[in-house]
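May I ask for a single protein's sequence together with how it folds?
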Amino acid sequence: MSAAVCVFILSAVCGHTVVSGGLSRPTKVRLTSQDMNLVLSWDSPAGPAGLLYTAEYKCSVNSYKASCVNISTLECDFTRIPQGIYQFGKYTGRVRAQSGTETSAWVESNSITLDRETFITSPNVSLLSNAAAIEVIIEDPVFRISSLRAIFSSATYNITYWQDGQRQKTKNMSNILQNRVVLSDLEPWTRYCVQVQISTRRRPNHLSQPSTAVCESTTIDEEAPWVAAVVTFVVTAMAVALVVIAVVYRKHISRFLCPKDELPQHFNEDLTKRPNSSWYIAIAEEIFHQMSIIPADSSVLEAEHPLEAEPPHNTQT
């Protein structure tokens, strides 16, 4: 039996290819996609250390294109090539090992239809408490190619929520298109947890990874508009009533706030008693003459008090 036939039999029985005089091929070659990227990964074959690898990809209608040449890592991201990947294409990858001038045979991966098989990571979810309601705010994951809404225009959100500590009693909202949703059927002063998952609706069960559960508490029920009007009316009426009472009973209020307390009798006697101190008596016994100012004619004043005649003025002629 020839050597070629033996190699073929060993390959069929053992499940791997034996290349005479060549390098072993990379193993577990797989093509994956997450958030619309396209990555080929593999395991290193048994053989010498320091191997280099070359990876290529192709669309279903094109031939292979080199993407990563003579790399030492065990993966190649095809989406790093500008405009190299089309979001609705079907792709296959392949890789081979190289050591010096020796190369292994190519190993092909599985095929992926990008928009149908990409794994979508979880959306980012935040909550905003508003009285007895909670608003759910959803942000789509960032895609490497285009955006979620550009590729999955009919994508919807599935929202699950429950009271904290009662995970078994969940409530669900499905096929939600808006990325801001208000949960209004909630109890006041209660903590709720929310989890969101994206459905592309491109094919059955093409769902994103569920988001991390986030929790927020409600507060008191929001007051109706008429409640505020009634409160305002009552406060105004009370203010007017207080003003009227203050005006009508101002004297009584003044007496109540500023009472006129009488001094005790012994205080009054001490204050009205004539002092006996020597300095006070000396001042009190001083003689004062009473003076009256009476207006009168100048003729009367001259009669009662004649003035001395002025000497005649000398006149020269």
